[in-house]
Structures are given as C-alpha cells and as structure tokens.
Amino acid sequence: MSDLTAQVATTQINASVSSVEISPVESVTAIAAAIEAEQKSVSVSSPAITVTISGLTVTLSWMKENLTSLVDGANKVFPATDTPAANSLFVWYQNMIMLEDIDYTLVGDTVTFSTAPRAGRTVYFQYQKA
Length: 130
Fold this sequence. Notes:
Elements (H helix, E strand, L loop, with lengths): L1 H8 L15 H13 L3 E4 L3 E6 L2 E11 L10 E3 L10 E4 L2 E2 L6 E4 L2 E4 L9 E6 L2
Antiparallel strand pairs: 1-2, 2-3, 3-9, 4-8, 5-6, 5-9, 7-8
Helix pairs in contact: 1-2
C-alpha cells in the first residue's frame, strides 16, 4: 500500500492533461490531500469522485454494491456487477474490510469467501470498473 501512495505523490496533473486514471482509493486520498494543500477545489460524492484543478476535471467512477440479499449462511460465492479494476476491490463484511487471499478470493467478477457469511449479515463491494 505504501508503494502506491509514494507513486501517487510524484504524479503531476496540469491543465494540459485531458484525462487522468487513478486507482485505488489510497491514490485518490493522496491526490485529494495534495490538491487541498494547494487550495484547489475538491469535491467528493459517492460513487464518483470529482477533482477540479484550474479547469481540469477528473472523475473517478466507483461502484458500490450491496450484496446482503445473497447472504443466507451457506452461500460463499458473490458476483460483482462489473469486473473490478486491478487492486481496486474492497470487500466489506459487517462494516469490516476483508483481506484478499485470506477472507476471500477474486476471480474475474466473482468473490468467493473462505467461510460463508452468516445469515442476516451485510456484505458490500466497492471498486473501480476494469
């Protein structure tokens, strides 16, 4: 994670750039902090984050999906609506972030939990589209 933040810290965005791709959320946080330090405009709304810098607008689209209706105590497999971009998926179970390769695996657009979430519990995905 720290490598991603360090990489973003050296990213230059200027008015001649027409578009910028940023991922994952650590990058967004680092860029937003840098922009605020320069007293530029930053607005955040879910699921998109819009950053305006001297006329340049960068929009980052994040998907947030509630899969709680699929939680039945036996189901371990949960499909995302779209394929998540590399390193952008956050899996939330009962308001706790799950760890990839420990709590779940991701193949394509499908998350498979190591242990089936208990019935009545909440499961959310948050990610950027691939």
